[in-house]
Sequence to fold (455 residues):
Amino acid sequence: MKIKTSWLIADGLAITPKDDKELTVGKEVEMKPTIRLRPATVEESKSLDQEQRQFKKDRKKNSKKNPYDIRQKSIRDISLQKYDEDKESYESLDERILPTKKKPTESGLIVNEPAWLVQNAVNELKARLNGAKYLSEHFGNYVEVYFKDILINILNQRNVLWDHVAYIISTFDPRAVQIVNVIELPDGTYSVPEGQHTAIVLLILWQEGIIDSNYKVMCKVTPHDQLVPGSPLQGEAYGNWLFRNLNSKSRRQIDPYHMHKSRYLGARKYGSTLPEDLEALAIEDVVRKNHMLTIEKTTRAKMKSSQITYITGLYRIAQTGTPLFNKSLKDLDFALRTHDKHFIMEKGVDGGWILGMGRYHQLAREQNIDITQAHEDALMDMIMTNHGSPWEWHKKCKDVLREYQDRNYLYNGWNDSVLVPLLINEFKVWCEKQFGSAFHFPIVEDLNCNKFRDI
Fold:
């Protein structure tokens, strides 16, 4: 009689599961000349079965924690970033400029690297100075000035942006008030080339009694006749240059990622209760719940799995600053969750996917259509089968729109409102092909389908 049984070495040590064999009871098996096997008892077989089941369970559990598994890597990256954000991180100025101290290679400095950029700029400035140096007096003085002595040169300044004034007032914090740049004129008054909105806000609040009556405006004063090395300008000519220089090139607008990071850290790390900070934190929580990270804008080739650079898209889908924000977070979660579940290996999270899937879920939600698991699976199967990836689907949408514009003699240009109409139309065809008339999902309607009816 042949049975499946466990076999033990004669001294009682268990053979690993891979050595179990189909053997005839009573037949002696010799693995090595000095090792003899015997059948295990019923109790020993049960013990071995339990050990093997535990072994498989542990192996499956440990495989989920594989450090090279891409999903676990995403979770680990999120944990590391959160740890870094929890620390108080400071750098000295010397540490901050270390990238500019990089030594050149045999072929010289690498173009557009910090060392190359800064060294070229320094060389340009040195050439302009022609051996001269800036002295302390060239940097102006800081003086508290009465409101009555402050003037605006309307030839050099733009018109007052009253919506900007209103925003500054509504969010006013005296610690955030910037120094007003002024030129001291021969008659003792002060002309403002930079900082007119700050001065206007301060005057309004002072007149309203919100600022102490003894308050004077802190100004950086440049004498009207002061010249500095490397520039022929002085007085109002210098002020005219300062206005356009500071407001066009010298001040860089904060990019969406760093604005988002500042906001959500304001709420999570520093306890801010500002609405925009709380919304940013809620968005970041949805991102991280789906094993993703928001990062600075970069090329797709440099992106890693689960990284998001299209921060503006997150805010658009979440409808920040509106009463719909809390409901719209579910739309964002759908877009990110489906990407995390079905396309974890992709380089980064495609911006078109965030917009397309987020809006698709929004329309379904507004039309009381429940996107069931079967509905979602069919939609993802269509993307994977027809396109292979979110990025390829987005690219196909761009190609279809361009062909439509060429066919109708229209200017070429991207319009992301085409994403959902194309998705809906393609999904209809897919469902008819896969399920026929016997089965179909509720059709999500989008008014933009009318705009692209012939696409």
Notes: Confidence is low (pLDDT under 50) at residues 1-38, 59-68.
